Amino acid sequence: MTISTGRCVVLILNSIFWVALVLLSLLLFIHHDKELDIPISWMKSLELPFGISMIVLVVLFFTGLAGLLVVVMGEKFQKIFIAIFSSMLILLTCLLTTLSYMEYSHHEEIRGEYLMQFDESIKNYNSSRSTINNSTNDDWSNDGSIYNAEDVDRIQSIMKCCGSQNYTDFEESPWGKKHTDMAPESCCNVDLMQKNNMTCRALNWKEESELIYARGCHDIVDAAFVHWLDTLIVIQCFLVICTVIALFGSSIWIRLNRQTRSQTDYEPLLDED
């Protein structure tokens, strides 16, 4: 009965590890595709945490696999897989604790670097697409920043904002120098343009400011990035708690199994007496 209960506990914890593997993968690679599409591997302040995160994902996979083998394997191999499972849990606990501490203690540094990089992407905006003078060139120029022009346009369109602080931020960009007093097509207020039966295009911010998103993207992007980073830290901290519980549970299970085997070994001797 004790072994059966122990297997159920390991199975539940094992399920948590598999779910955590999926969640962390989503947060690191997929979560912001339609919004920020955060290029975390390009950020210097996240280089080490990102590397550790890759190791955590691998260890999570093998921890889940070891836990599954503990549940399904017979008594002959169970002891070996319990030892492997416990060792993986210790490694996972150390990695997750280190990772969470690094991200939490450098929270403002990570946030500051991301926002600085975003502002630089606005300053270096160099879209070769233009709807000015009926030009329809759909190619994009890579400006070398954390976000290229296409990324900036996507963020502005989805989040309904323009520039970093406002639409005048493009004035000093390579694109802005070619198109004086203009805001990119992605800055046009789609709802207002549709009400006026107009098609989105690059707009003159001196003469058509009412048709441009008035709010800058800086605060919106800041909130979205901080939400992503905080969510990542919370999930990692939750996993640390789970691994500690799993370590405690596996140690109790090992002790109970040893006691059960000890009693079984001594029973024949007691019968002979």
Automatic annotation (TrEMBL):
The keyword Membrane is assigned to this record: yes
Top-rank taxon, per record: Eukaryota
Annotated compartments: Membrane
Membrane topology type: Multi-pass membrane protein
Gene3D superfamilies assigned to the protein according to its UniProt record, in alphabetical order: Tetraspanin (1.10.1450.10)
Residue ranges of the TM segments: 9-30, 50-73, 80-102, 233-254
Protein name: Oidioi.mRNA.OKI2018_I69.XSR.g15635.t1.cds
